[in-house]
What we know:
CATH class of the largest domain: Alpha Beta
Helix content: 25-40%
CATH superfamily of the largest domain: CoaB-like
Strand order of the largest sheet: 12-11-8-13-16-17-18-19
CATH topology of the largest domain: Rossmann fold
Strand content: 15-25%
Amino acid sequence: MGTFSCKIRGMNKSHIVLGITGGIAAYKAAELLRLLTKQGISVQVAMTEAACHFITPTTLQGLSGKPVYTDQWDARIPNNMAHINLSREASAIVVAPASADFIAKLAHGLADDLLSNLCLARNCLLLIAPAMNREMWQNPATQRNIAQLIADGVQVLGPESGMQACGEEGIGRMLEPEQLAEYITASFQPKLLSGQKILITAGPTYETIDAVRGITNRSSGKMGYAIARAALEMGADVTLVSGPTALSAPVGAQKIDVQSAAQMYEAVMHNVARSDIFIAVAAVADYRIALPSEHKIKKSSSNLTLELIPNPDILAQVASLPNPPFCVGFAAESENLAEYAEQKRRAKKLPLLVGNIAQQAIGSDDNELILFDDDGIHPLPRADKLTLARHLMQHIAQRHQGAL
């Protein structure tokens, strides 16, 4: 049995400075802070004076577990150089919300308060999440400032369009905390898959019996969606073909919704020629109803017999193409995992197959995986599915690079 020693490079960068400027969207910073700390990221908050009128330092200190800084002359910093000291251990400074006034300061190199000093004296990544009235956002001065920041290497996250606090509707709303958290954690990931096109299937399929009934399975889609997010974090261009789930697609993924195995097959075959890597995570139904009824089948006292016919084996079809992408399969078994998974890998001629125990995996938020490839067996210990997905995608990147 091989030992899986691949570490998630970049994830040791687990400390950021969260800057908050004056604007009604400052209340969203509390939820963003909570989401980041939940992921194990250490967050140091720095606020402008205006931000303190919208949300209190006490709230943010309670969520971060660290004192909040608002003054560049803060005596708690022994050398009175908060603008230097606070950012030196950070992998990124994130300003959310970033007001029009603060964006103008950044674009012109002004530094008249703690947060603007921190941004000017930084030696790390800077990300900003603009939030302002639609007219302020569309003003030529703001657009010039944004263009300058992008040219300077600042990552601009958003804004989005929608209803604003002033009652107007248009572009200028700060991205929601969940979206920002995804972008921030993605910025820490090594871009091992930059430029690669990855096609992923996820979730269950639904095979129609009649107008109101069907055959499906218990797959939640969580693992496939986590893999899509991990691939995006590593710089890939992701197409996600998804059966019916209650999940939101990761930000940046092109999602194709399907119901049946036949629809999933068509979507995959339509996109596979443009794909460098194909990851078949979906729990695809092996069979479908031969003659589904257009109308509801009425209940009777007689037995009901349904004829099932095989669905196409999507993974096998892709792997057998004349010039297939790098194919990764999944095997969820209820017993004899190692034996059945390796048999499946060899039968379909796959460079990599991911195995798990179905009873432990379906619907859960965590799991443990075993990777099967030509070098042997590589167990991934139990962890949340996003962590497992990041480990898996690093392994896929290494194997794919070796196959080129």
